[in-house]
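question for whoever is on the cluster today: can someone run the full assembly for these? two chains, 417 residues total. i dont have access anymore since they changed the login thing
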Amino acid sequence: MDSAAIAEHIPRLRRYARALAGDSHRADDLVQDTLERALSKFHLWRHGSDLRAWMFSIMHNVFINQLKARRELALDEATEAALESAPQSDPLQLRDLDAALRRLPAEQREVLLLVGLEQLSYVEASQALDVPIGTVMSRLSRGRERLRVLMSDVKLSDATSATNLKVVK
Amino acid sequence: MSNITETDLHAYADGQLDDARRVQVEAYLAHDPAAAECVRVWREQNEALRALYNPVLNEPLPQRLLALRAPRRRWPAYAIAAGMMGLGFALGWMAQSHRTDPFVEAAALPRRAAIAYAVYAPEVRHPVEVGADQQDHLVKWLSKRLGSELKAPVLTQQGFELVGGRLLPGGKGPVAQFMYQDAKGQRITLYVSHRDAEPRDTAFRFSQEDKVGVFYWIDGKLGYALSGEMARANLLAVATVVYRQLNP
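^ ran it for u. tokens below:
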């Protein structure tokens, strides 16, 4: 019955993983590793606590380990600042929201998705990520602002290419 | 109103404020167009994220996840043993519930209930098939179609009156939907589905399906889901009353 309880969360874990990891194969790898780990650690789960938040915290750990293995560790503030100030090198690749998400530091992407997509409360998100709630709020704030800028770049580049077309005509 | 912080604005955009604070933030936003614009953008981001990734919920699960395949090599032996036990449980459970895929069933209940809510709750002229004025007939009819004795809970003390009910197609056959409404016209629905899998009981679970909150539980042969667009705590209070009335 325990693994059935875990299984109920698969569709939502997949949704979150897809948004977090991008392509569906990588996302399902993430889900599979998370499920295996959850099954093997199920005795550590405190009965009565929120199973879903616990699953998200496992997925967070698996995700961070995968990033480390691929040397794509979450960007710290310094690299992030460098990115902000760097000229927009490839605005055309930012075709949509999914592409914009890829350009967020992983730690901001996680918070943005746990709150905006999975609709976790801030407290649940702070538990899942094992960080103080103030950290959740600052990542949320920076993530949202960054996403806004990235998305407006998309619109801008669309507008530019439309203008260019007119000129060519 | 200068005590409104950025955290309040985020919490407002995410629907995480209680009613009192929400009113204060709304008053604040009315006089701060820049803040209101921020909130609008954040909400738009949330909606865009859900629009983009919600379809994943309805994808058939890949076989490798359904099977919860044996753990890969990097886990130590004790973990593999524990994982295999879990796998045994899962497979055993899948076997006994034969046609019903437990993964799909459990995930489907709140989602179906929320969709049924979203379709019928805004309906002005025909929210129900049979009105509360024929309550006895309604309950008998739905009980007969579901093959289980149903009850329509009385939620008058919570401020909700029965509007009526209807029969809906579910994943595995007929489903009943009871609709209630309060004095302000706010509606909630109780969605009841009959399960042909092994009877079992589950605790209360909550699922947020876009704007619709759903508390759901399984009680023997019946799956229940109470849906509404209201604060989680308020919905939980009603769900608790419903549960107690169904399990006196």
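summary bc i know u wont read the tokens: Helices of chain B lie at 6-13, 19-30, 33-53, 63-66, 77-96, 102-120, 135-146, 232-246. The longest helix of chain B spans residues 33-53.
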